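#structure-requests
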Amino acid sequence: MESRFHQELDQLKLTILKMAALTETALEKGIHALFERDVEIADEVIRGDREINLLEIDVDKYCLRLLALDQPMARDLRFIIGCMKISVDLERIADQAVNVAERAIVLSQSPPLPRNPLMIELAETALDMVRCAISAFVQENVTQARDVCQLDDNADELNVTVLKNLLNYMVKEVPAVERSVQTIIVARCLERVADQATNIAESVIFIVQGMNIKHHCDQ
């Protein structure tokens, strides 16, 4: 019985890792499609979302079975609950990657806006946070998880600055209003990715230390 339980825990972790890998790749491709105006890659992100959704369902199935049949305690219970939360955030990150890809397709049909270093920085920050949060889960590294939390304020500030800059640009360049609005939506998607990466980091801390630090991850 003990062996079967731990085998299922291992399978749960492997499913989360597969989901995480696909989600990270989707975000990478979505960002690439945006900045390189690559419609083919954007289409790949959109088509690939279904596999990530199915993996979330698999995670729910494993977790519910483990909870119902084995009544786990302590660390094992935290791990199962944490995996359920992480799978939700991974699925939401993948949805944001799809949103970015969809905006990339729309923007590719019009002349590009001037290069925006802050958008690039925001995209890189969001992607780094996802990578770091996944690594923290794999290594059960609380320090790394807290590093993700520290980056969230930076992502929020970048999003606000991008918004202000684009609003000012729209006032001066009326023909660019639609493209600017689409870019604002992308910035918001990336900011949401940063929030969801922070949620994953909070779940890692909960799994490892048994601390619920939601809404005050930096403490």
